[in-house]
Design a protein that fits this description.
Helices cover 32% and strands 16% of the residues. It is of the alpha/beta class. 53% of the residues are buried.
Length: 456
């Protein structure tokens, strides 16, 4: 019996090239401002139009400032990239959600929340974290700029079919353990190259119990395990999340879609190229100590003795030491990993009745205007303001040093984003990846803190 990955992939095969790649039909292409300009330029030079413009959606996110979005962008490089995307979308007749548009935000947050990313789809974007959309039960993966051009012009892409892997997490998660911790734990166990060449299907009791936001976080981090992508079979949680969303099917079309979506699962006897099982009881709140996302540990543990010297030197840590009680400088809540409403609720649950530590600069950045408005509607902004925090405007923010939100050299940032490479959040910055709960605990205490000690 075929796996769910096989089912979706095979349904989108246009042509099989002998001893070569597959020509795969793409249902949805997302374009942001960083990886699309050269693709549009090449289309222009060739005199080519977009084959299916209605299937393509554009929005700036990497370069957008998170304050004063109603004013011109100050940084000339960022301004040029954002303006160029707007001009290209207009010229090629594509949907464009620009800054201050209420549908704008980080592309990987907006796609699912607007009902643009649907079960059974193939979804691509010139961005590695496109794997996020796999949480909807889609085959979603990042592509390069030349491939962006390929999809713009033909709505197809040439791809080698990856191998399939199933990662099951069984049991129940303990107190203070979130989807982010599950992902960091899996990476610690299999390393950042453990899923290279594979497409992951996440399954098991823990995954079935996860909220949609949690699933989006987990699938977002698939790429950090080396995988081509990661996804979760759609179920009632998926259908409840999508119902009534702007671009989701309506009326009879909805009923028909759900009927089809219910067939999207791997068979009982499906054979995977690789299968791994983890026990939820082994996972505690996680934090990274090194310079790749796989260099993580339980928050109460010590840095492993065999940690690479280069990483330790960059982070100014020592093998064998604990991170609990370490002073930090910045906290970042946001990114396509943890910029959703559930993440702000978690952060606020720790911040409520407490106050931001004086030594900490905190950037709390919603993943979209929809999340921003929800924060206001739920009164989370008041809770956070009383605790000394401020909500910024949507964008990728301090996930990567492409806008004004940069961590200074030598400073420590507890970050809910997806990467902790050298200089990722700013030249010389030191990033410790963690969940929103762990980030909040650090923000109010000023040091790395086990969030369980602050939970009601």
């Amino acid at each position: 019996m075929n796996t769910l990955f096989d089912k979706i992939w095979d349904a989108h095969v246009v042509n099989l090239i002998e001893d070569g790649p597959t020509q795969l039909y793409i249902d949805r292409l997302y374009c942001h401002e960083v990886t699309s300009p050269q693709a549009f330029d090449s289309m222009r030079k060739r005199g080519v139009k977009c084959l299916r413009p209605q299937n393509i959606f554009c929005m700036p996110d990497h370069n957008t400032p998170t304050v004063n979005q109603d004013k011109p962008i100050q940084d000339p490089v960022s301004k040029k990239q954002v303006d160029t995307l707007q001009a290209n979308a207009k010229e090629f007749g594509l949907s464009h959600f620009g800054m201050m548009d209420q549908r704008n935000g980080i592309i990987h947050v907006v796609g699912p929340e607007r009902g643009l990313s649907l079960p059974g789809m193939t979804i691509v974007c010139g961005d590695s974290h496109t794997s996020t959309h796999g949480a909807m039960g889609a085959v979603a993966f990042g592509i390069g700029t030349s491939e962006v051009e390929m999809v713009l012009s033909s709505q197809c892409i040439l791809q080698q079919k990856p191998l399939s892997m199933r990662v099951r997490v069984e049991g129940e998660l303990g107190k203070g353990v979130s989807a982010k911790d599950v992902a960091l734990y899996i990476m610690k166990e299999i390393t950042t190259s453990g899923a290279t060449g594979y497409f992951i299907e996440y399954a098991g009791q823990v995954i079935r119990s996860m909220s949609m936001e949690g699933r989006l976080t987990l699938c977002n981090l698939s790429i950090e395990m080396g995988a081509r992508g990661g996804f979760i079979a759609p179920d009632q949680t998926t259908f409840n999340y999508l119902k009534g969303r702007e671009f989701a099917p309506k009326g009879e079309a909805w009923d028909k879609a759900v009927e089809y979506w219910k067939t999207l699962r791997s068979g009982e006897d499906a054979v995977f190229d690789k299968e791994i099982v983890f026990d939820a009881a082994d996972i505690e709140p996680m934090i990274t100590y090194g310079t790749n996302p796989g260099m993580g540990m339980g928050i109460t543990e010590s840095i492993p003795k065999d940690t690479a010297e280069k990483s330790l030197k960059y982070m100014d840590f020592k093998a064998g030491e604990k991170l609990l009680g370490k002073k930090i400088d910045y906290v970042f809540l946001g990114a396509c990993t943890n910029g959703r409403i559930e993440d702000f609720r978690a952060f606020a649950s720790i911040a409520c009745g407490r106050h931001k530590a004086d030594n900490v600069i905190a950037w709390l950045v919603p993943g979209s205007w929809m999340v921003y408005n929800q924060i206001k509607e739920e009164g989370l902004d008041k809770v956070l303001e009383e605790a000394g925090f401020e909500i910024r405007q949507p964008g990728c923010s301090a996930c990567l040093a492409m806008n004004d939100d940069k961590i200074p050299a030598g400073k420590y940032a507890v970050s809910t984003s997806n990467r902790n490479f050298e200089g990722r959040q700013g030249p010389g910055s030191r990033t410790l990846l963690a969940s929103p709960l762990t980030a909040a605990a650090a923000a109010v205490s000023g040091v790395i803190t086990d969030p369980r000690t602050l939970m009601q």
